[in-house]
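Practice record 12: protein with adenosine monophosphate.
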Amino acid sequence: MSPQTALPIAPDAVGWRFDNTYSRLPDALFTAAEPARVAGPKVAVLNHRLASELGLDLTGLSPDAAAALFAGQDLPPGSQPIAQAYAGHQYGGFTVLGDGRAILLGEHRTPSGRLVDVQFKGSGRTRYSRGGDGRAALGPMLREYVISEAMAALGVPTTRSLAVATTGEPVYRTGQKKGAVLTRVAASHVRVGTFEYAARRDPAALRALADYAIDRHYPELADAPQKYLAFLRAVADRQAALVARWQLIGFVHGVMNTDNVAVSGETIDYGPCAFMNAYDPATVFSSIDSGGRYAYGNQPNITQWNLARFAETLLALIAPEPEAAVAAAMEVLNGFPAVFERFWLDGMRAKLGLSSAEAGDAELVHDLLGWMHAARADFTNTFRDLSADGPPAGEKYQTADFGAWHARWVERLAREGRPVAASHALMRSVNPVVIPRNHRVEEALSAAEERDDFTVLERLLEAVSAPFEERAEFAAYREPPADECGYRTFCGT
Ligand code: AMP
Ligand code: MG
């Protein structure tokens, strides 16, 4: 080619830098998969901000090219699509699962050297689809997009959402819905359930998986003594930190099955999740969780239960003698409540403007929560109201009960030995103004699904993108719903 010849536009003008590290693991852990052909791909929403963090440039793509890419019609160069095998305990019962409606394209290397999974969700059947169609409906994919991006803005470890494209094809759930594909970006999709699968398949696959997860997420443990025990402890610590963050912002995951627990410590698989309005530990949003297994107040306990399932898979790697392995694992598991409590109480102290620690702090927090529960006070707004300079305004704060608690808190703040304004500034940096409240999410999804109107969604995304800032134009997003009786998200995602 002469120097004058125009170079063809490189196929990776977007900036993809794919590797396929998961595909080099033992065959038992995945199978090849192909995204389905679809009739009419169209971009619904694109995350340009995330794209640039990943070193990708989507601005040069034509609408057709972007639609073909994000509906899985035109695969990025270097990708090698597979479906991952996994199992999981769902509502307590063990099942073999796998990516039934997701396809991993491989791992993209970001400019900072981070390796991230790029996955399509809703792109058609795989070896693991069982009776399912492998597809996803637009509403649930937009729900994951909004809530995952809101969580990221809140500073909570989470998978991210790069795009949603509609397929131009119907999917059949409760009635006919528009089909869609979500492009999800994650530290990885290795789950507790992946370990449960590998442990039951063969020891070689299990060890390879453990080494892979350590290398990707806990490289500092590569040469640690008792490496696999250290790995268990590190995963338990990250889960404790993660679920403490959920509790601190009133997030209810909704389906904490072990296949929905990422070993990286990211929040993953947004289904019937939602943010709590009025404080109530019994808050449940999933329509099928009638027993309240995954209620807000139960999330720390369930995390410990899930970690016990994880620990079981590692026993053979932890020590050759079962008794020794069990004893070592039990020590980690039994330590979980204290580790969780430390993350939670540190976070709660910050929410109350405390940078020092005193013995009575936990009681101070629990008494506030007790008052909130009795008063049906909004969780998010109460903490934000307390963050304002001056006494909190509002009728519910004028009661004797609240007054007594407030006086104790004011005394406690005085013992911080710094101006109260500094405490309030700390509070405003951790207590969000805007969360993606259920009624706002539903309003945005209905507009998109029923009227093809994505402006409501775009505005909600803007509102949740800077959750700690008080912006007058988004004041309405602070309001809890007038009536949330019976609010349920549906698991038919
Ligand atoms: P989830 O509720 O998204 O955590 O999914 C639980 C399991 O069901 C996973 O193995 C999914 O791949 C599978 N699954 C969910 N929806 C479908 C579907 N429409 N087709 C095939 N498999 C599905
Ligand atoms: Mg799942």
